[in-house]
Specification:
The chain has 206 residues and is mainly beta. The chain contains no helices and 14 strands. The strands form 4 sheets. It has a 4-stranded antiparallel sheet, with no helix packed on it.
Length: 206
């Protein structure tokens, strides 16, 4: 079973990925469209097995994952909301359940989970999206902004973002209602023409 699932993603191989928020894990269902009701997941990350639901701030643990994305290079990206970070798992098809992540953004290391600001910090990341060029976009709900990390897969742990949307600079974190402000953004999507769409939740608009 699941407990408050918060995000789903279908990858290029037809696998369904679920951010199982309150169970502190990500589930994978291969060949999802052909599965029957109540089918079991075949992989789990954030936990060592399918029966555990422990909260932990480590390279192999999570607290409250909210969003998942698998890029064309077979990397799994996870927005771990409560840890204020985004985890990167390389070569995910060949990783067993419970494997550790290779990279983290929003924190300097895998054992820190504090709220952050500026170009390196995240505050309640709720959604992620990867562009065709490999840029990672992160919707920071409480920071009222979206950060962009260019060539995200090549970045060192805790690297700085390259751009911010919703604020005039990386130091801002106030909500607003204008063409340049946001109020608790939650969802992200990138169209084929490289247009970024943002669910500006508390402003009731896209």
């Amino acid at each position: 079973g699941m407990n408050n699932p918060a995000g789903v993603f279908i990858d290029h191989l037809g696998r369904l990925w679920v951010a199982d928020h309150d169970n502190a894990r990500v589930l994978r269902f291969s060949n999802a469209s052909s599965l029957t009701s109540h089918a079991a997941a075949d992989r789990v990350y954030g936990q060592p097995d399918f029966t555990s639901s422990t909260f932990s701030v480590t390279a192999s643990g999570m607290i409250n994952p909210t969003a998942v994305w698998v890029d064309k290079a077979d990397r799994l990206w996870v927005a771990d909301e409560a840890c204020c970070r985004v985890l990167r798992f390389d070569d995910i098809s060949n990783k067993p359940s419970g494997a550790a992540a290779e990279g983290v953004l929003g924190q300097a290391d895998f054992t820190t989970g504090s709220q952050g600001s500026g170009a390196t910090g995240l505050d309640r990341p709720m959604s992620i999206a990867i562009s065709r060029s490999g840029a990672l976009f992160v919707a920071c709900n409480r920071g009222h902004r979206v950060l962009r990390f260019n060539n995200a897969a090549t970045l060192a742990n805790g690297a700085a973002a390259n751009a911010v949307l919703g604020q005039v600079d990386f130091d801002g974190s106030t909500s607003g209602l204008s063409s340049t402000n946001m109020n608790n953004p939650r969802g992200l999507a990138i169209a084929k023409d490289d247009t970024l769409w943002v669910c500006d939740t508390d402003n009731s608009r896209i």
